[in-house]
């Protein structure tokens, strides 16, 4: 392993500013140690798009993150600034996908949309995709005047989408189709005062209206896709009861990809960036039980030795696909980049990239 560390350091030094290595918060510690920036998927892509020097981005994350980096780094404006030169985005392991992103395919969402437009006029319903989704779905939203959202800005985006729906529909009951994560959609809507009776869950394996009656769908303000993150879905209210028995003064903080009952019983909920900020800024001696990916929680505990920081569940909850990237894959990726081969290139097709970019930009405008 020491050899690999030395090899990686040497190649990084030789490539200098031409190379940018991005590491998602859920990556292995030994990978994060070799990254230029750490963060959540969208933060990393935005920062990468602003970098003027780099020629290649190695994205130590999962497939949809590399797609977003490619879309933003190679936007028409950025291409013009570089006289047309593209930035290549590569993923060290092509098997690093996201099971939640794969729960909503373009074909299934199109089929849902076609059913919904038998009940609504097309401009009466607004599609919103969590950034944890394929570029195909971002393009779908871009084509239908929809939005992307992150776990940080989901509330602002949903608010904007419902307002736009209201303007288009000229009624008090605009509707949003939210995919792929039902939990982020539900938890955000509840924070906005929308009750669960005003939401429907769309199961693409069910016939007709995703397992709902036409009346249910017509009376919904939010239609939630039946997707979820297997890492965050593992947390249950029993974990909170247990941890509070063990540490009566502990604060429980969870990610909004967790189930509604977990979010409601926690003391606080928010994105990875929010969790990082709350814990980092808390006073020495604070105690936290954290309901999110365990590599991130373990890193937080290491970075805050003056606080007690534990996983909310006793069994760690790791994102397996993020964990596929190990030192040998990173070293091989670097060798390939240095040799000019550029294996594992992630390039969003021209067919969909402009609409996917439009969807991301509409999100940024909604939050500005
Ligand atoms: S933690 Fe969940 S949402 Fe994030 S990449 Fe892993 S499976 Fe996908």
Keywords for this entry:
binds iron/sulfur cluster, alpha/beta, single chain, 368 residues, 3 domains, 4-stranded parallel beta sheet, Rossmann fold
Please describe what this structure looks like.
The structure is a single chain. With 368 residues, the chain is an alpha/beta fold. The protein has 3 domains: 2-96 and 323-348, NadA-like (Rossmann fold, 3-Layer(aba) Sandwich); 101-228, no CATH class; 232-311, Rossmann fold (3-Layer(aba) Sandwich). Helices cover 43% and strands 15% of the residues. It contains 16 helices and 13 strands. It has helices at residues 2-15, 29-32, 41-50, 63-73, 76-81, 106-116, 135-143, 154-169, 182-191, 214-218, 237-246, 260-265, 272-281, 294-303, 327-339, 353-366; strands at 19-24, 37-39, 56-60, 88-90, 125-130, 147-149, 175-179, 199-202, 222-225, 251-254, 268-269, 287-291, 308-311. The strands form 3 sheets. A 5-stranded parallel beta sheet has the order 6-5-7-9-8, sandwiched between helices. A 4-stranded parallel beta sheet has the order 2-1-3-4, with helices on both faces. Helix 7 (135-143) links the parallel strand 5 and strand 6. The longest helix has 16 residues, at 154-169. The termini are far apart. The model has no long low-confidence stretch (mean pLDDT 94). Bound molecules: iron/sulfur cluster (SF4). The site of iron/sulfur cluster has 13 residues, from loops.
- How much is the average pLDDT? 94
Assess the beta-strand content as a share of residues: 5-15%
Distance between the ends: 45 Å
Structural class by helix and strand composition: alpha/beta
Number of domains: 3
Order of helices and strands: HEHEHEHHEHEHEHEHEHEHEHEHEHEHH
Largest sheet: 5 strands, parallel
Q: Taking Cα atoms only, what radius of gyration do you get, to the nearest Å?
A: 21 Å
